[in-house]
Amino acid sequence: MTEIVTALPPAAIVVADKAYRAIASDPLRVHLLDAPDSLVVPYSAEPVARAESVLAVRDKLIARDMLNVDQLLVRNPYDVSAYTPADEAVETFVKAKYYHLASIAGLLGATSVKFVKVEIEQEKSDFLTKVKSDMKAVTGAADVGQSVKKNLEGRFDASTEYVGKEADVAGAREFMIARRLMNDPDVVGLIDLCATGNPLRKHRVKINGLRESTNTLKAGFDLAVALQVPMTTGGNFTRAVESISSIEVTTEITW
């Protein structure tokens, strides 16, 4: 039985067996099969490169009913053993970060965590500028970015009430590390505030919803560019990532 890898490559795409063989025989694209930040997974054919990793990922996708031809996937930045369909990634990751912050607040004894607003900056980020000219299929980026903005503002209305308890600073730090949030100064700062011994009453924080997702989104975008992913599969993802430079979520926490 294939051993499931614990840390997945940042991006992957499932392709038809015929398409996989075409990539493997193309001297201009065969290097993509050995790329360190992504995997090209044939639907059922035997892989010719990185076989152990490809088979492990394919088994994982089958187990989660996610093995679909032309499916572009990006790794969840908060769970390196899970993939998310690329077209859902931006919204999914921003929402996940809010809920992870709410969980940390709960561990710190908060009684209420409330989403206040989301702000989206539609300005092309540096890492995309250099590859924009290579992505001939990317059009309407501003429209897709605006769509993501409307979806988040219209559907993201979260409010969590806790009974309240004594702050578990050590538990909050463990959760922060487990969810890979230790590089976010706002999350670290919240825990440090609660570690002072002076109980908080209220704290409002604006978190960067895409801080942990940058490398993952870049890997997905680069894979889509290299394979010229059609607009019917990863198009919304590539246009949204090309359009949006930051998403900031303001949250109010009460003790």
Tell me briefly what this model is.
By secondary structure, the protein is of the alpha+beta class. The protein has two domains: 11-69, no CATH class; 86-254, no CATH class. It is built from nine helices and eight strands.
Main attributes of the structure:
single chain, about 260 residues, alpha+beta, 2 domains, four-stranded mixed sheet, four-stranded antiparallel sheet, 8 strands, elongated
Describe the structure.
The structure is a single chain. This protein is an alpha+beta fold and 255 residues long. The chain is built from nine helices and eight strands. It has helices at 17-24, 51-63, 86-107, 126-129, 141-155, 169-178, 185-194, 214-227, 235-243, and strands at 11-15, 38-42, 71-76, 79-85, 112-121, 159-161, 202-208, 246-254. The strands form two sheets. It has a four-stranded mixed sheet, sandwiched between helices. A four-stranded antiparallel sheet has the order 6-5-8-7. It is elongated. 37% of the residues are buried.
Poorly predicted residue ranges: 1-5, 125-140
Average of pLDDT: 84
**Percent helix:** 40-55%
Order of adjacent strands in the largest pleated sheet: 2-1-3-4
Specify Rg, calculated over alpha carbons.
20 Å
Largest sheet: 4 strands, mixed
Task: Give the termini separation.
Answer: 49 Å
Order of helices and strands: EHEHEEHEHHEHHEHHE
Total DSSP E strands: 8
- Helix count equals 9
Strand content: 15-25%
Q: Helices and strands: which structural class?
A: alpha+beta
Shape call:
elongated
Count of the domains: 2
